[in-house]
């Protein structure tokens, strides 16, 4: 299966633009390259820079060309390009296989390929064909795709402010004016829900993906809730950051999937969602059973479930849930108690207890 590129790292001279900045009187940006940059951005593929150049001159030229805002994490210096690509992948918390690098110089591509063999490297003459390549064509284009770059840029500003804060984390979170919304998914949001089931791994309880068709079937089933989680703060929207798939029975709620973006882990998103759901189940007078399947990346989600009170204890209510048909799937149980609302964010959510079966 083709791994979709999440970030393309551009060289500048004779790659992004035509000419060499420090040698030629002028460098030019072709209409074709401009179209590639804007379309990759619309597809939700981030773009960065690794260029051996004078930083101030190069960035000023990008601004003059009207495309500077499209690039995050610019590395414009005289160091090895593999160091820059590695730093970009680590800052974004992306697997190196999700990073691509394009450069006109074979020696630069070879240097990156030698140190980072998982990174896909392309010669500059391949620019025109990038948009037709499957690795640059995400299977799903969502309502958040066009603003993914802006959301990452906002996250960097949050991180910078957090680094300047010398108080407790809880105090800093209050300054963000965080808002979380939990709502029933609309048809327009299904593509983003599908993407969350496919792309999230660290905070994904099962790693089981759900297709658009499967999600539509759940929307049409009155026993199921397909819930989308969004977040925002004073820096701007985080977009859709989580999904809950819940099947409701008269005496039991079955949490089939909880998945959240790793970008909101530090804001306590997972704990907030679980505490909200547990409190709703308590008010409805039902038990909770949650599906969990351990993977090599979702240990954090297991910790979140256990911390919320889910365990392996047997209960007669489990008979309500059909036998698991996924290898390695565990069924964790919880008899709910009342839970406090978070003090670091404002939560807007449906009243599931009022509509209990």
Plain-language structure description:
With 357 residues, the protein is an alpha/beta fold. Helix content is 32%, strand content 22%. It has 10 helices and 12 strands. It has a 7-stranded mixed beta sheet with strand order 11-10-9-8-7-6-12, sandwiched between helices. Strand 2, helix 2 and strand 3 form a beta-alpha-beta unit. Helix 3 crosses helix 4 (106-115). It starts with 6 loop residues before the first strand and ends in a 9-residue tail after the last strand.
Helix-strand blueprint:
Blueprint: E1 7-10, H1 31-42, E2 46-51, H2 55-64, E3 72-76, H3 81-92, E4 99-103, H4 106-115, E5 120-123, H5 148-164, H6 169-175, E6 178-184, H7 190-199, H8 212-220, E7 224-233, E8 236-248, E9 252-260, H9 269-284, E10 287-292, H10 299-308, E11 330-334, E12 345-348
Parallel strand pairs: 1-2, 1-4, 2-3, 4-5, 6-12, 9-10
Antiparallel strand pairs: 6-7, 7-8, 8-9, 10-11
Helix pairs in contact: 3-4, 9-10
Features:
single chain, 357 residues, alpha/beta, 7-stranded mixed sheet, 5-stranded parallel sheet, 10 helices
Q: Spell the H/E element sequence.
A: EHEHEHEHEHHEHHEEEHEHEE
Could you tell me the strand content as a percent range?
15-25%
Characterize the biggest β-sheet: 7 strands, mixed
Weakly predicted, low-confidence segments: none
- Assembly form of the protein: single chain
Which descriptor suits the 3D outline? elongated
- State the helicity in percent bands: 25-40%
Alpha-carbon Rg, integer: 23 Å
* Gap from first CA to last CA: 41 Å
Class by alpha and beta content: alpha/beta
Strand order of the largest sheet: 11-10-9-8-7-6-12
Task: Figure out the total of helices.
Answer: 10
Mean pLDDT: 90
Per DSSP E runs of 2 or more residues, the count of β-strands stands at: 12
């Amino acid at each position: 299966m083709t791994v979709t590129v999440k970030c393309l790292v551009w060289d500048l001279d004779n790659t992004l633009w035509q000419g060499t900045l420090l040698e030629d009187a002028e460098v030019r940006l072709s209409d074709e390259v401009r179209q590639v940059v804007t379309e990759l951005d619309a597809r939700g593929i981030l773009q960065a820079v690794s260029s051996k150049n004078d930083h101030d001159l190069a960035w000023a030229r990008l601004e003059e060309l009207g495309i500077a805002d499209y690039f995050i994490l610019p590395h414009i210096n005289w160091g090895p390009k593999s160091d820059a690509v590695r730093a970009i992948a680590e800052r974004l918390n992306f697997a190196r296989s999700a990073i691509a690098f394009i450069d006109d110089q074979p020696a630069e591509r070879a240097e990156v390929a030698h140190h980072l063999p998982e990174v896909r490297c392309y010669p500059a003459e391949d620019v025109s064909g990038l948009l037709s390549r499957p690795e640059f064509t995400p299977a799903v284009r969502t309502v958040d795709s066009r603003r993914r770059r802006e959301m990452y840029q906002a996250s960097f500003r949050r991180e910078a402010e957090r680094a300047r804060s010398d108080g407790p984390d809880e105090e800093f979170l209050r300054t963000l004016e965080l808002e979380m919304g939990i709502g029933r998914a609309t048809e327009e949001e299904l593509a983003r829900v599908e993407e969350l089931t496919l792309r999230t791994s660290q905070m994904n309880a099962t790693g089981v993906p759900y297709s658009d068709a499967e999600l539509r079937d759940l929307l049409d089933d009155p026993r199921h809730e397909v819930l989308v989680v969004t977040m925002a703060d004073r820096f701007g929207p985080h977009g859709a950051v989580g999904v809950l798939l819940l099947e409701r029975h008269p005496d039991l709620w079955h949490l089939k999937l909880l998945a959240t973006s790793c970008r909101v882990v530090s804001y306590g998103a997972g704990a907030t969602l679980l505490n909200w759901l547990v409190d709703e189940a308590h008010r409805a007078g039902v038990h909770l059973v949650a599906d969990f399947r351990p993977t090599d990346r979702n240990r954090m989600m297991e910790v979140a479930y256990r911390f919320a009170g889910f365990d392996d204890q047997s209960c007669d209510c489990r008979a309500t849930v059909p036998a698991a048909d996924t290898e390695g799937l565990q069924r964790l149980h919880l008899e709910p108690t009342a839970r406090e609302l978070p003090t670091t964010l404002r939560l807007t959510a449906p009243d599931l207890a009022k509509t209990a079966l």
